[in-house]
């Protein structure tokens, strides 16, 4: 393919993807299934890999999330809230592992976690008290949702220690709460939410916290931005955050090799439907926090973690096939 053709295709993909991202992130109302978005996004990545001059700062591949143009107050994130690289096969996970081993010079253990289908949430505490909660937004600037988060039952308002600290995790709506909300909306003739992720985002990003109060939101906390020195691993960090009263997911495991990671993936691909909350993949994180620091991040994603995305479910595949044939 000639550069001019690649440039034209990349521009068209960027335009399309940005429209979809606006509907998804800003309006909480996606117009296509995730796998349709992912396929176009990956095509854009392919083009940019083949023609690096196409990688410009305004490409969607260099940006986190969407525009932050809601009426909610804005919050700057001193430590950016990034996106995450993703892969769709075990072979690509092997490549990820080889890349990590090459960079650090030895095999590493991973903390393997469920990829919760919700939206990122930052919780900041001052002297042990929750003083601010915010969304990821565009990674640098998010939205202040403190008043809304005060109505999420599993978020501690006060910690058992006088800590000034920040944790991050996922705000989600469980499957039961989602079904109930959509049934109620349907009954009242209101538009239903496309999926639990959008229901969670739409319920949290509300100007009126009383709306959030009526929706049943939950959290899983998995990142400690500034943990005490004694905390040296991701798995350990999650255990310590649980002791502070945060709701953490019990299914995370520290695994020493890829065989064990693959078995974990198989296990949760099986169990996925029985979980009371939605997951859209499995996350591998280099467990050693010092190594995470050493590996760092690109403008968009940390180098020490990757998401393995589940293949689309049948209904989603159908939507995708229709998309491609029209
Ligand atoms: P992402 O949602 O694929 O992955 C990053 C996010 O995963 C993090 O920000 C965090 O919130 C979340 N996460 C869940 N569990 C986690 C865990 N255990 N550890 C760490 N993080 C965890 O990335 P993104 O940049 O938010 O969005 C990109 C994805 O959103 C695309 O792959 C696409 O599927 C979807 N999307 C869809 C549309 C659409 O129109 N359908 C539009 C835009 C984006």
UniProtKB/TrEMBL annotation:
Residues reported to bind NAD(+): 34-38, 83-84, 113, 136, 170, 285, 309
Active-site residue list: 115
Similarity comment: Belongs to the NAD-dependent DNA ligase family. LigA subfamily.
Chain's role: DNA ligase that catalyzes the formation of phosphodiester linkages between 5'-phosphoryl and 3'-hydroxyl groups in double-stranded DNA using NAD as a coenzyme and as the energy source for the reaction. It is essential for DNA replication and repair of damaged DNA.
Protein name: DNA ligase
